[in-house]
């Protein structure tokens, strides 16, 4: 069957040489891993008549087709990466004092550099502006 070459074994039986992808006494069993269905260097394991893929670090999915955007961690300054939507996207959870898509920007408002109850407003470039309460002025509401 399936292109196998069966040769009499001299004892009234035969032995079949099966083509790649087939096995069994008469080449009747198809090897589900023969087509190398696992992607990204995933390891194919025969399982209950089918197969399953064991994925390398950084990949998931039934065929290792989904890249884990958090491997390696793209977040900087101790940020924690969270995969989102299973589509290769991610979100960085930044530690206190850092902002930005990858926690790349130091938040100049932590701790608050403004004096006398001034409100610190980060400018997005690592700098800040102080919004001073009535009666105070200066770059840091010091006057």
From TrEMBL:
Organism: Rotaria sordida
GO MF annotation terms: calcium ion binding
InterPro entries: EGF, EGF-like_Ca-bd_dom, Growth_fac_rcpt_cys_sf, Notch_Cell-Fate_Det
One record GO biological process: heterophilic cell-cell adhesion via plasma membrane cell adhesion molecules
Record carries keyword GTP-binding: no
Pfam families hit by this protein: EGF (PF00008)
Cysteine disulfide partners in this protein: 18-27, 55-64, 75-92, 94-103, 132-141
Keyword terms, alphabetized: Disulfide bond, EGF-like domain, Glycoprotein, Repeat, Signal
Coiled coil: none
Stated name of the protein: EGF-like domain-containing protein
Signal peptide positions (record): none
Listed SUPFAM superfamilies: Growth factor receptor domain
PROSITE patterns: EGF_1, EGF_2, EGF_3
GO CC terms, sorted: plasma membrane; protein-containing complex
Location of the EGF-like domain: 1-28, 29-65, 66-104, 105-142
């Amino acid at each position: 069957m399936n292109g196998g070459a069966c040769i009499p074994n001299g004892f009234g039986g035969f032995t079949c040489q099966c083509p790649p992808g087939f096995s069994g006494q008469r080449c009747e069993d198809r090897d589900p891993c023969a087509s190398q269905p696992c992607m990204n260097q995933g390891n194919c394991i025969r399982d209950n008549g089918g197969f399953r893929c064991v994925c390398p670090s950084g990949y998931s999915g039934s065929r290792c087709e989904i890249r884990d955007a958090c491997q390696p961690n793209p977040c900087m300054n101790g940020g924690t990466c969270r995969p989102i939507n299973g589509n290769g996207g991610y979100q960085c959870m930044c530690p206190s004092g850092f902002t930005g898509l990858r926690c790349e920007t130091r938040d100049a408002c932590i701790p608050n550099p403004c004096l006398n109850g001034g409100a610190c407003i980060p400018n997005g470039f690592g700098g800040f502006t102080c919004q001073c309460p009535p009666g105070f002025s200066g770059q840091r509401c010091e006057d």
